[in-house]
Design goal:
Blueprint lengths: L11 H7 L25 E5 L4 E5 L2 H8 L3
Antiparallel strand pairs: 1-2
């Protein structure tokens, strides 16, 4: 016996990423904290997830540093 259609699966990671603005307390955006731009007064929040580290800028100095870093 073979299924003619695959069972529907819900991917919570994909849903949280797609609807991040609706559920901002769920963090599905992955980043690497291996290299971060340093700037005077820049503050970052580092979280540990099951897949690695997630870094977020906490103030304007950090956002400016990240925004101009390539």
């Amino acid at each position: 016996m073979y299924a003619l259609n695959a069972p529907r699966r819900i991917d919570p990671w994909e849903l949280a990423h797609r609807y991040h603005s609706w559920v901002p307390w769920v963090d599905a955006l992955y980043g690497s904290a291996t290299f971060l731009p340093m700037a005077d007064g820049a503050l970052y929040e580092i979280k540990v997830s099951q897949t690695g580290l997630i870094a977020r800028p906490l103030n304007q100095a950090a956002r400016d540093a990240v925004g101009s870093w390539h």
